[in-house]
Design a protein that fits this description.
Elements: H1 2-5, H2 18-23, E1 28-29, E2 38-43, E3 49-53, H3 60-63, E4 90-98, E5 102-107, E6 111-119, E7 127-132, H4 144-153, H5 156-164, E8 169-172, E9 178-180, E10 185-186, E11 196-204, E12 208-217, H6 219-232, E13 255-260, E14 267-275, H7 278-283, E15 286-296, E16 307-314, E17 323-326, E18 340-344, E19 349-359, H8 360-366, E20 369-376, E21 381-388
Parallel strand pairs: 1-5
Antiparallel strand pairs: 2-3, 4-12, 5-11, 6-9, 6-10, 6-12, 7-8, 7-11, 13-14, 14-19, 15-16, 15-18, 15-20, 16-17, 20-21
């Protein structure tokens, strides 16, 4: 992969991020991105400041627990000495460029203030359709006339109330820097009685910077909700579900788990365990697998982009598979960067051995995250529900 990065100046035209596209096909929970809290800071012997931080936290349940080192970011005074406080409430942000076109964020019971926003350069067009409690219905981009009309109709102080009333709202970048994707909720006199998911589908535009959600909560109501939710409404990924028990998973997409197995030289091998659905096994004789690594890159090499997807592909060794990291160029068949093609699918459970040809530290230094996808015979691309993060 390091060798491939050095080739970036050779003129990548229309780079297709196949794996990223698969990962963006559904509404991605922003709470499945890592959040780290600062516990304390101090000076070392040379006068340099260093920080003690929590491990990376995934899922709403761990990211916003009202106790321990994350408690202070919800305004719990007894934990204020353990980590920094955020304006009496709590928040999280995704650093840098976000290319997801469908995502969602949870607004818990007891919320008194909420806002979801991002940043874009002046003059950049970006429009999204937003709804609370259900996926928005619109899927087509705005015309220029619709864009201008949405800009005139947008009222940040009123939009959240319209969303709570059940409206589907169009949110657009007004030409400044920040863009609101929710309006501003000011509910101090009437905290949100029940938690709700906010769904966002991008209609115009390809990326947003510094996507951020900020909350303030009524501590008593939030604590009562969280203590009840711990028992009743958190799914296995740590995110709240809409009802008291996790909904059944549709029998349409395989699930996966991944285990690390470094070899004797320290190079990382991943063992991917895939459980295909009964419908998938019955519908197809063959399955192909893709392995992609998302890597932050220098924007001088990839204008307008902050991450790029490399695919671990079989280069066709004489004595068996020989894997190397590749880019997918415009017009190049996606099958050419498959990790494994046309495995006979005769049972639900499949094991995929994936030699990364890099150490875990190499992957960490590159800032890489590894995604996994598959395609059945004559089927569409699907992404698995697992991401390997070496950090």
């Amino acid at each position: 992969m390091q060798k491939v990065l050095s080739m970036c100046k050779k003129g990548v035209v229309g780079l297709i991020m196949a794996m990223a596209g698969m990962a963006h096909a559904q509404f991605v929970s922003l709470h499945q991105f890592p959040v780290t809290y600062t516990i304390s800071s101090a000076l070392d012997a040379n006068g340099n400041i260093y920080f003690t931080k929590t491990p990376e936290l995934f899922g709403f349940k761990d990211q916003f627990a009202p106790f321990g080192v994350s408690g202070c970011v919800m305004g719990y005074a007894e934990y204020r000495s353990l980590c920094q406080r955020v304006n009496g409430g709590f928040d999280f942000s995704l650093e840098g460029y976000t290319s997801y076109t469908q995502y969602r964020v949870y607004i818990p019971a007891g919320t008194t203030f909420f806002g979801l926003s991002g940043f874009l350069p002046q003059g950049t067009e970006y429009a999204a359709t937003v709804k609370i409690g259900a996926e928005p219905s619109r899927t087509t981009p705005l015309t220029q006339a619709e864009y201008e009309a949405a800009k005139r109709d947008q009222k940040i102080d009123l939009d959240f109330g319209r969303l709570l009333a059940g409206e589907e709202r169009i949110m657009v970048h007004d030409g400044g820097g920040n863009i609101s994707l929710s309006g501003t909720a000011r509910l101090s006199s009437n905290p949100l009685p029940t938690g709700q998911w906010l769904y966002v589908r991008v209609l115009n535009g390809s990326y947003i910077d510094s996507l951020r959600a900020s909350y303030e909560v009524d501590q008593g109501k939030y604590l009562a909700w969280y203590n009840n939710a711990v028992q009743n409404v958190f799914g296995s990924n740590g995110d709240p579900v809409e009802s008291g028990t996790p909904p059944p998973q549709p029998d349409t997409t395989a699930t996966g788990t991944v285990v690390e197995q470094p070899d004797a030289q320290g190079n990382m091998k991943l063992v991917l365990q895939v459980h295909h659905t009964d419908k998938e096994v019955a519908a197809a004789e063959k399955v192909s697998y893709w392995v992609g690594a998302s890597v932050p890159v220098n924007p001088l090499f990839f204008s307008g982009m902050k991450e790029v997807m490399f695919l671990l592909a079989d280069a066709g060794g004489l004595l068996g598979p020989l894997y190397e990291w590749r880019l997918l160029f415009q017009g190049q068949p996606v099958e050419s960067v498959a990790f494994e093609r046309d495995r006979i699918l005769v049972s639900n459970d499949q094991t995929v051995q994936i030699p990364l040809n890099l150490t875990k530290q190499d992957m960490r230094n590159l800032g890489a995250k590894v995604y996994f996808g598959y395609q059945l015979k004559n089927g569409t691309f699907k992404t698995l529900n697992v991401i390997w993060n070496p950090s």
